[in-house]
Amino acid sequence: MRLKFRSLAPYLFVGPAVLSVAVFLYGPLIASVLLSLVDWNLLSSDIRFIGPDNYTSVLENADFRLSAWNTLLYCVVLIPAEIILPLILALMLHSVRKSPVQAIYRSSLFLPTIVAFSVAGVAWSWLFNPVNGLLNEILGFFGLPPSRWHTDPDLALLCVCVVTFWKTFGLNMLLWLAALANLPPVLREASQLDGASARLHFFTISLPLMTPTAFFISVTTFFHVLDDIVGVIDVLTHGGPAGRSSSIVYYLWQQGLQFFQFGPASAVAVIIIVLVLAITWLQFRIGEKRVHYR
């Protein structure tokens, strides 16, 4: 009996984890692929197989194309901003690591990260308010005309970028700060003895040693941008005006949970999965070769 339990023990311990992955990861993935091939509304019991028609209709849909273009713009603006600016802030905080003000600055800068998207969106909607918002009051103080901010089709996407960055940059800043704190101080002392400037020390010693952290941040920031902008869009602009601030993930949410069009929504989900896998593969293919593991 004891021998039989020992032979089954590995399967009993690993089984729940494997079952969870199968049910909550691969199960929805397979369901999305199957649903993308049928015409089905959640409110109807009629399910009809239509093959790849959902993909064709989605790719020809002007709203999806605009959402895809907006998503590209979000990535172009937010990914470099959420990698480089947190690094700069981390360098500034690291330079005052022996001062008690570092904890105050670090907590203050990280505080927006733990704020709920709904709270952040409501707070910024007050700041962006075209009638009596604080930002228009500041513009008026300097004699500038008021702006419509997130209700302006030309500024809505930029407003979502600002709020998303404010809400999410703190995590990357802490990761950079941890990487800087983990650098051996003897290297800094050696470079100072050799007369190396702070800039030369950073680009030739510190940054190459932090490439594992840089690679991790670059990969995860892409996922965060795709996911984080949805909460801001939903609270701040609802994808408007006229879809100018929507994204493909928000478009997916609208099709599936607002209009109950599960076929097109599943087709969009499969397209997003393929895009994410392809971009992640490229990131590993290109970036991992430049990572220096100590």
Notable traits:
MetI-like fold, single chain, 2 strands, plasmid, mainly alpha, transport, cell membrane, 12 helices, membrane, MetI-like
Rg over C-alpha atoms, rounded to the nearest angstrom: 24 Å
Shape: globular
Q: How is the CATH topology named?
A: MetI-like fold
CATH architecture: Orthogonal Bundle
Number of helices: 12
Give the integer mean of the pLDDT values: 86
Strands, count: 2
Protein name: Sugar ABC transporter permease
Family: Belongs to the binding-protein-dependent transport system permease family.
Keywords: Cell membrane, Membrane, Plasmid, Transmembrane, Transmembrane helix, Transport
InterPro entries: ABC_transporter_permease, MetI-like, MetI-like_sf
Task: Summarize the structure in short.
This protein is an all-alpha fold. It contains 12 helices and 2 strands, in the order H-E-E-H-H-H-H-H-H-H-H-H-H-H.
How would you characterize this protein structure?
The protein is mainly alpha-helical and 294 residues long. It has one domain: Orthogonal Bundle (MetI-like fold), CATH 1.10.3720. It has a two-stranded antiparallel ribbon with strand order 1-2.
Secondary-structure map:
Elements: H1 2-35, E1 38-39, E2 48-49, H2 53-60, H3 62-95, H4 101-110, H5 117-127, H6 134-141, H7 156-181, H8 185-193, H9 198-209, H10 211-236, H11 248-258, H12 262-287
Antiparallel strand pairs: 1-2
Helix pairs in contact: 1-12, 2-12, 3-7, 3-10, 3-11, 5-10, 7-10, 10-12, 11-12
